[in-house]
Design a protein that fits this description.
The protein is built from four helices and six strands, in the order E-H-E-E-H-E-H-E-E-H. By secondary structure, it is an alpha+beta fold. Strands 1-3-2-4-5-6 form a six-stranded mixed β-sheet. It is globular and about 35 Å long. Bound molecules: tetrahydrodeoxyuridine.
Length: about 140
């Protein structure tokens, strides 16, 4: 099973989770956009799955960092999530704010409740948002 495990009483704080996203960002494969993103996804039972964006010469197969982290977790049988930290920016920089794309928000809506937390920000600090805040009126499996 991949992913670092934390004691439930000692879960990483937002800044520490953001640092893990920054570390994961170093593996980004971005020969086309040169925009590199890292994500660190914390599960309910204290495991952290990281991910980076992985681009492709045909462009559309590109996978965002957030989905890499989610798909790693789901493929390992982990389906209960607490929060995700996201760090992105052009090569050599970290933006003040890297907001997840619409496709990634929809993937989050598949696996997370409305109160799932996103830790967004940059070198000057991070801030929490809920999934409901960044994806209002979401379409979910409850509709089907
Ligand atoms: N990207 C992510 O990995 N996550 C985001 O939240 C925004 C965009 C990636 C996709 C692509 O490789 C590059 O950033 C530029 O869009």
């Amino acid at each position: 099973m991949c992913g670092e495990v934390f004691d439930p009483g000692k879960l990483p704080e937002d800044e520490a989770l953001f640092q893990m996203a920054l570390e994961a960002r170093k593996m980004a494969y971005t020969p086309y956009s040169h925009y590199q993103v890292g994500a660190a996804l914390l599960t309910e039972d204290g495991r952290v799955y990281t991910g980076c964006n992985i681009e492709n010469a045909s462009y559309s197969p590109t996978n965002c960092a957030e989905r890499t982290a989610f798909f790693k977790a789901v493929s390992e049988g982990d389906l209960h999530f607490k929060k995700i930290a996201i760090a992105g920016g052009r090569e050599g920089e970290v933006s003040e704010f890297c907001s997840p794309c619409g496709v990634c928000r929809q993937v989050m809506a598949e696996f997370c409740d409305e109160d799932f937390i996103l830790v967004l920000g940059g070198p000057q600090g991070v801030r929490e948002y809920t999934l409901a805040e960044i994806l209002p009126a979401m379409f979910t499996k409850k509709e089907l």
